C-alpha cells in the first residue's frame, strides 16, 4: 500500500459528526491515489496529532478536500514532530486483547466503585462503546458523541497497551475491536485529572528550590510511604499554610509540586467559595471537600485554597455571623478528613495575621511555609528562567537587572521580561530588521514602566524621580557622609561585615530649609536601588484614633517585605514631636512611640516577619552559643536585610531625645547652607542650559550669601523670566537680569537662623557622634 | 449535498436504473444484490424495532409508576402515624408486593429487548455481508462505478456507509437500553425518575435516520436484481 | 419417608366417577364452597378497584392541598382548609365500600366454618366406618380445604383491618410520601399474600373448577 502525501491544496476540515463515527471523507482523486477499498481504515497524520478514520468518498465528490473526524486520535510526543500531512493506509487486524484506561467524571467513578465485579462490567460497557472501532496503541477514543458512553459517564478511553501476540495478523498496525475482543481495564481515571495531566506544561519556577524540596517532601512522603507512616504511628500531615506576599509564586509553586508529585490539584480561590445566600458558602465548601475526598480515592490529591483569610478571618469584633459559620465549617471539614487519606490541604495567604488562630493549630494547617520576596540571587534565577526563551542581545546584564529589581516578585519579573520583549518587538516592526534581539535598553524602559506589585496600593510609596549625585551641587562632604550612612551599608554590606560593623539604623538630616535635604535622600535612594518609602505628616494624620499608628506600622511592614528599603520621614518634627512632660498625650506621641517601637522594639510581630528563615527561638542559657555560631554565617545577609530610616527636619531641637539616641536615628548629619564654592556649583548646575551672556557666576556666588539651594534655583528662574519680560525674542540672559532678580529675591536664611543650627550642632550628642564618625573613617 | 432523490424523475425512472444494471459488471451486480438483501432486512427490522418499542411503553410507564411508589413508601415516615402498631410488618410486605410487580413488568420489557437484540444481530450480520461482498469484489469494480448514483439508485459507497451508520446506531441504541435495564434499581432515584425519557432518548433519531436511508433506497429495493 | 410417598389408594374419589357426574354430599358442598370463595374474592377485587379510584381522587385533592401548603409556608400566607367539602362524598363512598368488603370477609369466615363443619362430618364418618381418610378429590384431604379457607379468611381479615385504617387516616395525611404509601397499600394489598392467592387457585383446580 502506498502512502499519499496530502497535496498542499487539500483542505482539511474537521468532521463534527454527532454519531461519533470515525470517518473521513475524501475526494475520488485522493481515494484513487490511496488505492484501498472504501471503508478501510487509514491514518491521518498531522504535525501534532494522528487520527484513525475509515475512508469514504465525500458527499459532493469533489477533489482536494478532506473532512475527518477526531474521534480516535493520538497526541504525538513533541520531539517526534513530523511536519508533513500524510494519509497512510493501515494494516488492520482483529485484536484479541487490549488494555485500556477509562476516563470518566469523578462522580461517576464513585458510582462505579459501588458496583460488584466492577471491572467485568466496565469492560463490557467499554467493549460496546468501542464496538467496530479501529484503534492502536496510545490512541485516545473520544466518546463524547457515544450515547452509551455518556449514559455510563465515560468520556474517553485510552488504549494503553496491546499485548504482543494478541493480533491476528502480526504486521497489523491497528486493529478493530469486535465483540470477541477481550478488554482489560487497567485504570479508571477521572476526567479532571486526565485533562490536568494532558494540559500541564512544566512551568519552571526559579529561586525556590530548597523550599520546593521541603514542600515536596511534605507531600510526597505521606503519599508514597503510607505504610512507614503507619509503622511509626505518626499521623499524616493534614495541611500546609503557605504565607508570603502576593505574586511571589505561592500558586505556581503548588501547581508545580502537584505536577511533580503526580497529584490531582483542585485549586480554588477563597472568594470563589462565598455565595450570596445564607448557607451557600458553607455548602460550597462542603462540596469542595467532598470533591477533593472523592478525587483522593483515585490518587494523591492536593486541595489548594488561595487567600484562605477570606474564608477564615479572625473573629471580627463586629461579629459577622456568616463568617464565623464559614470558619467553623472549614475547621470541621479539616478535622473530619479521613485518617488514611491521600489528600493534602494547602492554603495560602498573604495576611497570616488575619487568619483565625484555631486554623493554625496542629492537626489542621499545622505546617507553615513562608515564601518571601525573592532576594537578589533568587531574582537572578527567576530572570534566567524567564529570559531563557527570549533572544537576548549581548549587552543584557542580568546580574545588574537582578540587582536593581529590588522588591520585584516573580510575577513582576515575568511582566518585566514580557514588557521588554514587547518593546523590542515594537522596534523590530518599525525598523523591519532581521535580527531580533532584546537589548538592555528595553529592559530598562520596562523597568521604569513597571512598578513592583508589592509597592502598589501602599501608603508612602512615591514615584521617585531619579536624582544622580552629580545633579546636586556642592555639599561634597555631606554627600560623602550620606553615602557612607545610606549607600555603603546597602551596597557594600560585605565590607561592613568584614569590619564587624553594625549597620546604621537611622539617619537624621537637619539643616535650614531649602538646602536640598530631600534631594540628597533622593539621590541616595537612586544610587542604591532600595525600596523607597516616604511618609509625611499630611499622609499620616487621619481623624480616626489609631489609624495613624497603624499606618506607620504598615509602612514598616511593607518595608520589611521588600528589603532592603529606606523609609524617608520628611519633616519629621511635624510627624513626631517631643514627649511633653505635662501629660498631654496627642496623636504625635502615639505615632512617636509606634515609630520608636518599630525601629528598635523588642521584636516584630511574628506574623509580620518576612524572613524565610525561621528565627531560632531564644532559649535561656543557650543564647550565646547560638548567636555566635550564627552570627558569622548570617551577618552578611542580615546586614543587607535592614530598614534604614532616614529623617529630615529643619527644627532638630523639637525632636524627642529617644529618637536620636544611638540605635535609632544615630547618624545625625548637618546639611549646611551652601558656602561660596557650593553656591557656585549650584549656580552652574542651574544655568547649565541657559544661554548666559556676560554673567560672572563667581561674582554672583559671592553676592548670594545666605541663599539656599532652593533660593538659587529660584534666582536663576527669575533671571531668565526677567530676560523674557524684557524681550520675548531674546536669546540671552544677561547679568542685569540677575541683578534685578537678586533685588526681588531675598535670601531666606539669616545669620541668626544659621547660628541656631550651629548651636544645635555643637550640643553634646553631636560631639559624641563626631567621635564615632572618626572611628568609621 | 446531492442525495438521490426519492421522487423519480419521470423521464428516466426505473428504466434508467435498469440501464445502469444492464451495463454493470458481474461483480457489481453481486454487490448490489447483497445490498438489496441487506436493505430488505433493515426494512423488516425497522418495523420489528418499532413494534417492540411500542410494546415497551406500557410496562415502562408501569415501572416508572411502581418505582415512584417504591420510593415514596420506603421514604414514608409511617412510624409516626399509628399505623405501625397494628401492622408492624406492613412496610416490608408492601415493598415486597411492589417489587414482585416490578419484576413482572421488567420481564415484559425483557421480552421486547430480546426482539431488539435480534434486530441488532441481523443488521450487524447484513452489514458485515455487504462490506465483505464489496471488499472481495472491489478490485474488479472501478471507483467511478462505486460512486455512480442515479436519481433512483444510490451509489454503492453511499449504501455501504448508510448500512454501517444504521448498524452503529442500532447497536448503540440497543446497548443503551440494555445498560439502563441492568443498572435499574428502584432505590436509585435519579435513574428511575427519568427512566422513560432516558430510555427513549435517541429512538426517534434512529428511526428518522433509518427511514431516511430507506426512502433513498426505496426504488432500489423495488428492483429485481438478478 | 417411604410412607410419605406411598401410592394413595383413592377409593371413592368423586372425580374418579367421571366429569359429568353430578356430585353429591360433602364433595358437592366443598366444590360449591370453593366456587363461592372464588366469587367472593372476585367481588373483593372489584370493590378494591372502586376503592382505589376513590382513594386516587382523595389523593389528588389532598396532594393539591399539601402542595399549596408548602407554597403557603414559603409565602407566609394562610392556606386553604385541609378538608374541603369535596372530600366528603368520597369518604362516604369509601365507607360504603368498606362495609361491602366487611361483608365479603364475613362470608369468607362463613365458608371457613362450612369447611370446618364438613371436615368434622367427614372425620366423624370415617371414624364410624373405620375407613382411612382419603382425599376428597384428587390429592387434598378435607383438612387442606379447611386450612386453605382459614388461611384465605385470615389474610383477608387482616387486609380488611388495614383498609379500615387507611380509610380512617387517608384524609388526615399531611405529606406526599405518606399519601403515596396509603395508595400503594390500598392497591397492592400487602396482607393478601401470594400464598393465599395460590391456595385459592389450587383449591379451584382441586375441585375441578379449573381444568387440569
**Count of all domains of chain B:** 1
- Low-pLDDT stretches of chain B: 1-22
What name is given to the CATH topology of the largest domain in chain A? Rossmann fold
Task: Give the fraction of residues assigned to helices of chain B.
Answer: over 70%
Please, how many helices of chain B? Answer: 9
Please identify the top-level CATH class of the largest domain in chain A: Alpha Beta
Q: Which CATH architecture of the largest domain in chain A is right? A: 3-Layer(aba) Sandwich
Would you identify the regions of chain A where 5 or more consecutive residues have pLDDT less than 50?
A: 608-640, 764-777
* Number of DSSP strand runs of chain A: 27
Query: Separation of termini of chain A?
Result: 89 Å
- Cα-atom radius of gyration of chain A: 36 Å
List its traits.
heterotrimer, A: 777 residues, alpha/beta, Barwin-like endoglucanases, Vcp-like ATPase, Chain A, domain 2, Rossmann fold, 6 domains, 5-stranded parallel sheet, 27 strands, B: 226 residues, mainly alpha, rod-shaped, disordered N terminus, CA109-like (chain B), Cyclin-dep_Kinase_2_interact (chain C)
Question: How would you describe what is shown here?
Answer:
The complex is a heterotrimer of chains A (777), B (226) and C (212). Chain A has 777 residues and is of the alpha/beta class. Chain A folds into six domains: 4-90, Barwin-like endoglucanases (Beta Barrel); 94-199, Vcp-like ATPase, Chain A, domain 2 (Roll), CATH 3.10.330.10; 209-370, Rossmann fold (3-Layer(aba) Sandwich), CATH 3.40.50; 376-455, Helicase, Ruva Protein, domain 3; 469-670, Rossmann fold, CATH 3.40.50; 676-748, Helicase, Ruva Protein, domain 3 (Orthogonal Bundle), CATH 1.10.8. Chain A contains 30 helices and 27 strands. The model of chain A is unreliable at 608-640 and 764-777 (pLDDT under 50). Chain B is mainly α. Chain B has one domain (32-222). Chain B is built from nine helices and no strands. Chain B has helices at 14-23, 26-75, 90-137, 143-147, 156-182, 189-193, 195-200, 203-216, 218-222. Helices cover 72% and strands 0% of the residues of chain C. By secondary structure, chain C is mostly helical. Classes of the chains: A alpha/beta (777), B mainly alpha (226), C mainly alpha (212). Chains in contact: A-B, B-C. Chain A binds chain B through residues 19, 21, 23, 28, 31-32, 37-39, 56-57, 59-61, 125, 128, 131-132, 146-148, 151-152, and chain B through 1-3, 131, 134-135, 138, 143-144, 146-147, 155, 157, 160-161, 164-165, 167-169, 171-173, 175-176, 179-180, 198, 201-202.
